[in-house]
Specification:
Helix content: over 70%
Radius of gyration: 24 Å
Strand content: under 5%
Structural class: mainly alpha
Distance between the termini: 39 Å
């Protein structure tokens, strides 16, 4: 009998180990496929299709096999409900062609957000998942260098074409800056932490360069508060007054030293020309009023999936996640997207206030900036844009779960000791 018990125990241990190996295998396949999709995104049209129609479905299948039971966190529930409502809005959309394109985009967004959310449940996978957007940023710059920059002849040209929108590069710059900071916090290797810290600081001048090349004011509007909040929580919060003064002096010296070159570059740029225009001259200003009116005229359901573009004067999307949702999907779509942003941001703030853990403030910073960015573009149907939000959301939940387990374990040990 004892030998049978030992044998049963051994078998159970081997089965458990096999499950871990299988799970790691599925995870490795999923992450590798996302890396390929990111690299192929702007390599060529055929490569992009290979990434979207082959790599991502393989990643989805592997993650589904890995996911035992269809467990969803609160962010997934809200986002997938938004996706489902957007699909339902197809029924009352007059322009079925635009609505079909929207449904096609939602399918890709669902596949990637699902994979990211499943893989993000394990904290040790976070660096590999963030690296997907490192590859995406590299792919974007590779495309820009070989297909756009070579044709820019003077400062009135803008880094922009149908495959790589100027604003898209601005969004990727925001993502890359944030992930550099996060990776400098979470990677275990000391040298890698230093490299990501250097990359984080290097993104400051690079961000200014992106703003000049793309003539995008959004870059400065977003990057300045992002860096202010992250620098505060890491380099200023909690340090002595003497070190705070020293840090401020160093920053001031750097700003003064760079001010001449920065001013010269700005004066000669297309960004300055755009900044001097009245906001009412920007087509987005008109789109705001149009989107609100379309939403009111078609209240409460909206005009139908992606159909605001069909009736807007400029035949454009609203360039605003909240108003696009209102115009296309009515009040329900607006509330779903808004609740996703508000819930994530407030939850991180509440956790930070309760624990004082700076990592929660980092997630809170992302929530604030991402929510703000929603006023400049439509994020919820853009595959790489909404997926990064879900990655950070999954990371925040995995981090909180591990932190809670550690606190519970410590409390149990202390109670056992007493």
């Amino acid at each position: 009998m004892p030998s049978l018990n030992i044998s049963d125990t051994t078998i159970k241990m081997r089965i458990k180990r096999l499950r871990y190996i299988t799970s790691d295998l599925y995870s490795g396949i999923s992450i590798a496929m996302m890396w390929l999709a990111a690299l192929f995104s702007l390599l060529s049209d055929s490569a992009n299709k290979l990434g979207l129609y082959v790599a991502l479905p393989i990643a989805f299948l592997a993650s589904t096999l890995q996911n035992r039971g269809f467990r969803l966190n609160i962010y997934e529930k809200i986002l997938y409900t938004l996706f489902a409502w957007d699909c339902l809005a197809y029924l009352w959309a007059d322009n079925k062609e635009l609505a079909s394109i929207e449904l096609h985009a939602l399918l890709g967004a669902f596949l990637l957000t699902y994979v990211v959310s499943i893989q993000g449940r394990k904290l040790n996978r976070a660096p590999y998942l963030y690296f997907v957007w490192v590859l995406l940023y590299i792919s974007a710059w590779n495309y820009a260098v070989h297909h756009i920059l070579v044709f820019m002849t003077d400062n009135t040209d803008r880094l922009n074409d149908e495959n790589l929108n100027a604003n898209t590069l601005a969004y990727y710059t925001f993502y890359f800056s944030f992930l550099c900071y996060v990776l400098s916090e979470i990677v275990k290797h000391k040298l890698l932490r230093r490299l990501w810290t250097i990359a984080f600081w290097a993104m400051l001048p690079i961000s200014f360069g992106v703003a000049l090349l793309t003539a995008s004011r959004q870059v400065l509007v977003i990057q300045i508060p992002l860096y202010a909040m992250l620098i505060y929580i890491r380099f200023i919060k909690g340090i002595s007054l003497k070190r705070k003064i020293l840090f401020c002096i160093i920053v001031l010296i750097c700003l003064i030293a760079a001010s001449g070159q920065v001013e010269k570059a700005y004066e000669d740029s297309f960004l300055k020309q755009r900044a001097e225009r009245s906001i009412t001259e920007d087509s987005r200003f008109a789109l705001i009023g149009e989107a609100i009116q379309v939403g009111i005229d078609n209240f409460p359901l909206g005009i139908g999936s992606a159909n605001f573009q069909a009736v807007s004067q400029h035949r454009e999307i609203a360039h605003n996640s909240y108003l696009e949702a209102f115009a296309d999907m009515g009040i329900i779509g607006t509330l779903l997207y808004t609740s996703l942003m508000v819930l994530f941001t407030l939850r991180q703030w509440r956790r930070y206030r309760q624990t004082g853990d700076k990592m929660y403030f980092t997630f809170f910073t992302f929530g604030v900036i991402y929510s703000l960015y929603g006023f400049f573009f439509v994020f919820y149907n853009a595959i790489w844009l909404i997926s990064f939000f879900m990655l950070v959301a999954a990371h925040s939940e995995a981090y909180h779960e591990q932190r809670t387990k550690k606190e519970t374990s410590l409390t149990t040990n202390e109670e056992g000791t007493t």
